[in-house]
Structure formats: C-alpha cells, structure tokens
Design goal:
The protein has helices at 2-14, 17-24, 30-51, 60-85, 90-97, 100-112, 118-139, 149-169, 177-199, 208-234, 238-244, 248-260, 266-285, and strands spanning 114-116, 287-291. It is an all-alpha fold and 293 residues long. It has one domain (2-291). It starts with a helix and ends with a strand.
Length: 293
C-alpha cells in the first residue's frame, strides 16, 4: 500500500509546482522567490536531519550533492519558472515535464548506447509531434501572445536537467535522505541566487497570496514532493514515477483552468493527447535486453 500511496501523493503535490509559479509571477521576481524557497527548504530539512541525528555528507559526497541539487532542482525549477514568467502557460509547461521519460530514452540511446524497440521510437515521434501541435499556436507570429524560442528552450533545458539529475540520484543513495535533501536544496539555492543576480530583480510585494504560495512551495513541493522523489528513486520506484508523471499535465491543466482561466485550443488538445499517448507508447516499448558495445 505504501509503495502505491507515496507515488500518488507525489504526483498530486508535484502537479501544483507550475501553478505556484503562475500564482507568484505577478507579485514577485520568481528567481528571488525560488532563492527564498530553496533556502527555507534547506533550513527545514537540515533541522529534521539534526533532530534525527542523521549523518551529513562530507568531502566529495557533499560536493556531489551540491552539484546534483544545483542541476536537478536549481536549473530545472529556475528555467521552468522563468519560462512561465515569460508567458508559457502552466499547463503546457507541465506537459513538457511529462516528456521526461522520452528524454530519458534519448539519453540512454546516446550515452549508454542502449537499443530501443521500434514501439519506443514511434512513441518518441508521436510525443514530439504532439508537443509541436501544443506549442504551434503560441509560437506563431500572428498569435495574440507569441512565445519566444528562448522561452521554449529554457523549458526544454529544465526537463533535460531534471532527467539527468534523476538518473544520477541513485549513485548517491547511501547518504541519509534528510541531510542529502538539505544539501541539495543548498545547491539549488546557489543556482537561484546566481539567476536572481544575473536576470532577476528585487520585486516582492508581500501580499498574503504571495506568502501563501511561498509556504506551499517550501512545505509542499520542496520538502514533501522532492523528498518523496528521492525516496522513490532510491527504492526502485522510478518506473512508477515515470508512469504517474502522465497524470501531471491533466492535473495542472485543470488547476490552471479553474484558477487562471487558461484554456487550450482544439489543436492544442489534440497535441496534448498525442504527447501523452506518445509517452504511453514509448513506455510500453521499453528497451532491448542488450546494449551496443
């Protein structure tokens, strides 16, 4: 039961991540928002680690956790939040996040030289085609609110970062989960600080809705969801997480519709379905038992 409920809880909380970005964007610089989020998360997780007398990573392990946090949390969230701040709808950003399994397959092919079945390649093609349909109206020059290619590139970089980070997480599984999460959030805070100093500003209006968004970002997505993600990867639940990621875009799209009145055109809805279908098809294909030498 635990191995079922934890992934479900994770994906429900994770789906609110881009909704938080959409809610906070009018009230604060998102890079400043993320710096405060990661800093507070590192502090809370550090207190939990200290109370539980957890051992802390040291030496090379500490550096590895800082770098992993900077990539898996820092680059992923700062790039995706920046894309949302530039006008990428929260529902579309979550759809791109669902392409993480396809990104994982490409990495395995390119760097591990693992063979993929024809069904997996077909899923890749269908999924990417679906994403193209979803993004096409926004990228069109005649759109009322056209997106810049830099915005889409930032979103895709964020997905690549979290994919590489997730694949690397199991190599550091010997470290206590609380101290590891605290150290990784420190790495993410450094990334957000660099982003704030380079492309951000100090806007913060201090409204109750902004503080509420920050509180949920810290307690919900950083402390709870990120810790659950690390736990699942360490306990061999990465496959279940990948499958449940398919629920993130619909959940985020529903939340964005009711909270911010974001809608999708018929073409985008078709693309949405194709992208999710492509992920399902690719996941059902799997990989061949042998790898290219």
């Amino acid at each position: 039961m635990q191995q079922f409920l934890i992934p479900v809880l994770f994906v429900v909380v994770w789906s609110t991540g881009f909704i938080i970005a959409r809610a906070a964007a009018p009230h604060a610089d998102l890079q400043l928002f993320l710096f405060l989020r990661f800093l507070a998360s590192a502090l809370i997780l550090g207190i939990v680690a200290a109370v539980s007398h957890a051992p802390w990573p040291c030496g090379r392990q500490r550096v590895a956790h800082l770098l992993l946090g900077a990539l898996m949390l820092g680059v992923y969230v700062t790039c995706s939040y920046w894309a949302v701040a530039q006008g990428l709808p929260a529902g579309i950003m979550s759809l791109l996040g669902a392409l993480q399994p396809l990104c994982t397959a490409l990495i395995l092919v390119i760097f591990v030289r693992q063979r993929l079945q024809a069904r997996t390649w077909a899923g890749l093609a269908v999924g990417l085609g679906g994403v193209a349909l979803v993004l096409a109206p926004k990228l069109a020059a005649g759109s009322a609110a056209p997106l810049k290619w830099a915005t889409v590139a930032a979103a895709l970089i964020s997905i690549l970062a979290v994919t590489i980070g997730t694949l690397s997480q199991r190599r550091l599984s010997s470290t206590n989960i609380w101290s590891a999460a605290s150290t990784q959030n420190c790495g993410a805070a450094i990334t957000a600080l660099v982003a704030m100093l380079s492309i951000g500003h100090s806007h913060w209006d201090g409204t109750p809705s902004l503080w509420a968004a920050l509180a949920w970002a810290v307690i919900g997505t950083s402390v709870l969801a990120s810790t659950l993600l690390v736990w699942m990867v360490r306990h061999g639940e990465a496959t279940k997480v990948t499958a449940l990621m398919l629920l993130v875009p619909p959940l985020a799209a529903i939340q964005a519709y009711f909270l911010f009145h974001e809608t999708l055109s018929p073409m985008q809805l078709i693309g949405f379905a194709l992208a999710l279908g492509g992920v399902v098809l690719a996941r059902s294909g799997g990989a061949a038992a042998t790898a290219v030498k």
